[in-house]
Specification:
285 residues, alpha/beta
Length: 285
């Protein structure tokens, strides 16, 4: 756990794999938790860590989007107001793993574009920016604290993955992060950063889309392209073979396919594995 401002704290997962998400705490006005981890064990550990600075159970939870890595601990916050974008409940049902036995606890307060909280005089702005990574993408901005909890619209030092939305939508969201000019950004995955994190991720996405266009025009498949495009400096990021997803997303745009076209999850991870093996790097997701 790290303190990021006077009243904001972050629990950071160090491995940066698919379900290793970060969470946040605002220790004002009954307490607010932002994202609740990937399973009950991690959620309980998060609660224990936050308990060092907030001894009561928080009265509010914000889910930045629908992925299991950010909502699976919701059930531990009995009686809390759970806030999310209006799309999130249905999307939680759609993406839930039927093999998971834990209870699916849905948001109770829904919003469309913006939602504001007043925590003892400190404003908290929930801003819908999706779909970038997922349909329900929301960022949480505290202007007075100069902090943004970005959810999975920002990956830091690990390769981003986008399941729905477009490159242009993601660029617009990253540009918004720059406009908000926070001192600290808590990404959905990876270590804390400032606006340089948004700049680096924008540069990565621009590079991948440009290289993908060249490969697409040359008649390569997205898998062939992912095996050929150089990682460059981004090869030092965690799970660089996730490149396949970003190439495939670009190809879908080039083919004018819908931004919310479904993915075959198993085949997607098989392709990532194949890219890693072909390039002689560890298989990690």
């Amino acid at each position: 756990m790290q303190q990021v401002s006077d009243h904001c704290f972050a629990v950071l997962n160090q491995k940066n794999r698919v379900c290793d998400a970060n969470s946040g705490l605002i220790n004002l006005a009954g307490g607010v938790v932002i994202d609740t981890q990937s399973d009950l064990a991690h959620a309980r550990q998060m609660i224990e860590l936050f308990g060092k600075v907030w001894t009561r159970m928080p009265q509010r939870v914000i889910n930045t989007h629908e992925d299991a890595g950010h909502v699976s601990g919701n059930q531990l916050f009995k009686g809390a107001e759970i806030i999310a974008h209006r799309s999130v409940p249905d999307r939680m049902r759609a993406v839930a793993d039927p093999r998971q036995s834990q209870e699916l606890t849905l948001p109770t307060t829904l919003f469309d574009v913006r939602y504001e909280l007043d925590l003892d005089g400190t404003e908290v702005h929930l801003i819908y920016v999706g779909p970038c990574h997922q349909m329900g993408d929301t960022i949480v901005h505290l202007p007075k604290e100069r902090v943004v909890f970005a959810g999975d619209v920002l990956f830091r030092q690990c390769t981003p993955m986008g399941w729905t939305g477009t490159y242009d939508k993601w660029f617009a969201c990253l540009d918004l992060l720059l406009e908000l000019d926070p001192e600290v950004i808590v990404p959905g995955h990876g270590p804390l950063c400032g606006i340089e994190g948004a700049c680096e991720m924008r540069a990565y996405l621009e590079y991948v889309r440009e290289e993908s266009r060249r490969c697409f025009n040359a008649g390569m498949t997205s898998l062939e392209a992912a095996k050929r495009i150089e990682f460059g400096p981004y090869g030092e990021w965690r799970a660089p073979a996730r490149l396949f997803m970003n190439v495939e997303r670009a190809y879908r745009e080039f083919r004018n396919e819908p931004a919310d076209a479904p993915w075959d999850t198993a085949k997607t991870f098989e392709a990532i594995c194949e890219v890693a093996i072909a390039r002689g790097i560890p298989v990690e997701f």
